[in-house]
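ok trying this again, last paste got cut off
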Amino acid sequence: MLTPGFKKIADSEVQNAPSGIKPLPLLAVVSVARSSNLIHFYRLFYCCFSVCVLAVILPQLFHNLWLLIIFALVVYVGFKFYRLQLTEMFSGEFWVEQGIWQLRGNRVIGSYILAGAVCCWPFMVLLPLRHQQTGKFMFLALTRDSLSPADNARLRTWLRVCFRPKT
C-alpha cells in the first residue's frame, strides 16, 4: 500500500501501530554482567531498613518479648528478600527490535515491552519491563560496572535519542 504523498512503501507494522507511538530503531546486543555495585546497594538498603526498624522499636524491645520476635522476623524476611534479589539479578544480553525488548540470560528469556518511564541516572539505568505473554512485571537495573564502557555509552545514547521529550 502506498502512503499518499510518498513513493516509499510503508511497513505494515508501522501502519498498525497506534498513532501516538513511533517505532523504535534497532538497538544492537548489549551484554550485561553481574554487578558488584548493585550487590553493595542491596546490602546497604536492607541493612538500613533493619536499622530503621530497630531504631523504632529499641526503647520497647527489652520490655516486650513479642517486639523482639517481630524484629527477628523482620530481619529474617529482609535477609530472604536480599537473597531473592541476588538470585534474580539479570546477567546476559538484551536488544531491541521493532519496539520489543528481547532478553536472554540467567532465568530470563523472552520478549518484553516497556511498562513505564525509563530512569537514567549517572550510576544506574532502570528499565521497567513487562513480559508480553505472561504480563509479569520486572525492573531491569543496569549499573555502570555491569556494562562494558562501549555498551554503556551505546545504551545511554540510544535511550537519550529514542526517549527525548518533544518540546
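PB: full thing came through this time. The mean pLDDT is 78.
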